[in-house]
Amino acid sequence: MASTTVEDVLFPGIDVQVEGVSDSSGILAVEAMSTARPGRCPNCHKQGRRVHSTYQRALDERPLGSRRVIIRLRVRRYFCDRKSCSRTMFVEQVPGLSTRYRRSSTGLADWLRLIAIELGGRPAARLCRRLRLSAGRTRLLRLLTAPTVPDRAPRVLGVDEFAFRKGCTYGTVLVDVEAGRVVDVLPDRTSETFAAWLTEHPGAEIICRDRASAYTKAVRESAPDALEVADRWHLLQNLSAAVEKTCHQHRDCLRKRAEEEKVTEVPEPPPMLLPPAELPRTQIIERTRHRYEDIHRLLEKRWTISAIARRLNLDRKTARRFRDTDLDQLASARERRPNGVLEPFKAYLNARFTETQGQVSGTRLFLEIQARGYRGSRQVVRKHLTALRAGTAEPVRVDIPSPRKITSWIMRPRETLTESQDERLLQVRLACPDIARACDLARAFADLARHRRGYLLLEWIRQAEQDAPKPMKGFAGFLRQDLAAVTAGLTLPWSSGVVEGHVNRVKTLKRAMYGRASFELLRSRILTQP
Fold first, then answer.
1. What stretch of H or E contains 71?
2. Which of 57, 276, 312, 331 has a 20 to 30 A CA-CA distance from 302?
């Protein structure tokens, strides 16, 4: 059996000789001396031959059990014999143990760097205290240095934005799509910054991006030979928004058909006479009406969107939405949602209340609808009964699916829909030809995206521009403006999925740093964390 020395246990593979070990007050002090070959001058890299003197330096090492370890390492000073070198003396470094200007061993520095990469400043410092490591947050953050960015861009480059502060300041993350790692992080999302980076780092043949026009401008200026690929997920997201807007605009068609079907039905008990269904005069809807009137009054005076936003203390996107959207659609979006579990049973409760002339208890009604499938609480039934007696109950609204629910039925593959969902979507299609046309076009485009049939895109655009609803025509026109990139996105296997994953990782790191990190620190953590 081979003998094991103290050096093999404490310093495996390192050229040092242990002269003594002492333990006092929970600190393990190791006296050691370097036995490595003469070091080289850090300036001219000439190997030292003449020893000037020796001295002892203290290095913190990784803890051993519950004890803190300090190495008192004796090293040698050498003369630099090269006359042209500006340095006359230098100190040797022990490979694997010491580096210049550091009071911790190489192994401990690697530990601290990994902790800082994963946790940042203060959380890493708290963990170090638990591990009996002497390191404050400032020292930990100084260990974070971003790696050097390669001179050439990767062959398949992914680009996307992320928010330092949502709605105010943004940055750009660049990803090697093939390797799945971050290449660099830019301090903003302007086309000038991205174009300068592409000029300094040539070599990108394929660039995956979303629909941001700033990146398109940069690619055309600095990498005109690169093939742009629009991301399929973003294309489907834009399509979903167009379908939902179409459903919003034709909501009256669904309500009209549902009311006609309700009239033709013969209910068992006579229905209770309630006020006609109308939009409730709530505070938020009144505010929406007043805001809509103020914005359109200023638009008639030829005010710009930026000026209106400043005058009314609104975001420009909010002012633009009020300009481009009808009042009915804005108000219906703010309409109070029905009382979820009780809504399907309100018609029955109202009929029973009318039949008994109000002489019925809430407990009895609760038991009756519970037998019919009600799963809510008894208190909700009592509150509705009290509102009926006081005459303040809201009318039973026609049960029509929301635009978002209809959009989800349309955008999902047909085989994933249940029979009831498929039946309700069929009723929606029969109620409104425009929604039916939008459904056909959306499913055809989704089929192009899922099966990468980009060669059929131009024909799809022509059909959408001929007889589609207005939101779908706008989406088709948007595709025509970016036809080459969209066709590539619907043809090639590349996408921005890897980039979106790194954007989520950036958000996680940013939140963990509580928004107090500088750009350089955040960039270092993004590039160093695997």
1. strand 67-79
2. 331
